[in-house]
Design goal:
This protein has 273 residues and is of the alpha/beta class. It has eleven helices and eight strands. It is globular, with a radius of gyration of 18 Å. The chain starts with a helix and ends with a strand.
């Protein structure tokens, strides 16, 4: 981790692993501490394919943004954003439509510090402290409303904020509340780890993330059929909720053993009444 980041992270308990910094480690980033690397290595010992899955997730996001821009979407809300890396939402979107407006949402101090420093002079991009569990507060945030026109369609992208939230947090209800706020013509994108193809790794991986998120004893593993519930009331775009390698691949030859990247993803539209 750079000296700048260490200064920005002053006051953090770096002995406790953090979800965003663990993800940063999987992508080969340097914005992580020893506790994060230890937790990440525990996960990699069970499922070494996680590193590949992290890169596949980035590629999936880029394809989703390309699709959404093609559908006329120019506003993006990235909920549960990670530490800025390559192929950030605003960079991909602006490469396709220069007027794209993006808001990143996170509760992680390192993510917020990095993002605000990176985007300090960008009026079309915002960084908001918030999470999926408090959608009413999130959509009322002045920082969000300064960037996003809430009367126009917006794409809500939820990449990692749901997959380890237990049902006791009512994540399906929270996503439904966000869906109800979205203007007609908006889209919801969700990516979620599922263990249909690797049931043997569910318990050890969930156990690590329970400790990372300080939620011991609350199992948040889900199957594809359960993840479908996040799209209730919306119209899934083709090819539906599938393994991310199968979702509109740039090259069909790249769809090899899709279940090896055991993340499912989908994009759905909110239609009119």
């Amino acid at each position: 981790m750079t000296d700048e980041t260490r200064r920005a992270s002053a006051g953090l308990d770096t002995s406790v692993p953090n979800y965003a910094r663990v993800a940063n480690y999987f992508l080969g980033g340097k914005d992580n501490f020893a506790a994060d690397r230890e937790a990440a290595e525990q996960i990699l010992a069970v499922a070494p394919e996680i590193r590949t899955m992290a890169r596949e997730s980035q590629a999936f996001q880029a394809r989703v943004i390309k699709f959404l821009v093609g559908e006329g979407i120019t506003q993006f809300l990235n909920v549960g954003a990670g530490i800025p890396a390559q192929q950030n939402t605003h960079e991909v979107a602006r490469s396709l439509t220069p007027d794209a407006r993006v808001v990143y949402v996170s509760t992680d101090p390192v993510v917020l510090s990095h993002s605000r420093a990176l985007l300090a002079t960008d009026e079309r991009t915002g960084v908001v402290e918030g999470d999926i569990l408090h959608p009413a507060e999130l959509v009322a945030d002045p920082g969000l409303r300064q960037v996003i026109d809430t009367e126009r369609p917006v794409a809500v992208i939820i990449i990692s904020a749901l997959q380890f939230l237990p049902d006791s947090d009512d994540p399906f209800k929270r996503v439904a509340e966000l869906r109800d706020w979205m203007p007609v013509g908006s889209y919801l994108c969700v990516i979620h780890a599922v263990f249909d193809a690797r049931p043997e790794v569910a318990a050890p991986i969930v156990d690590v993330y329970q400790r990372v998120l300080d939620r011991p004893g609350e199992n948040a593993s889900r199957t594809r059929e359960q993840v479908l519930g996040f799209f209730d009331g919306l119209e899934l775009a083709e090819p539906g909720l599938v393994y991310i390698r199968q979702w509109r691949p740039d090259n069909p030859l790249n769809v090899h053993r899709p279940e090896k990247a055991w993340l499912v993803g989908g994009v759905a539209r909110k239609s009119g009444p």
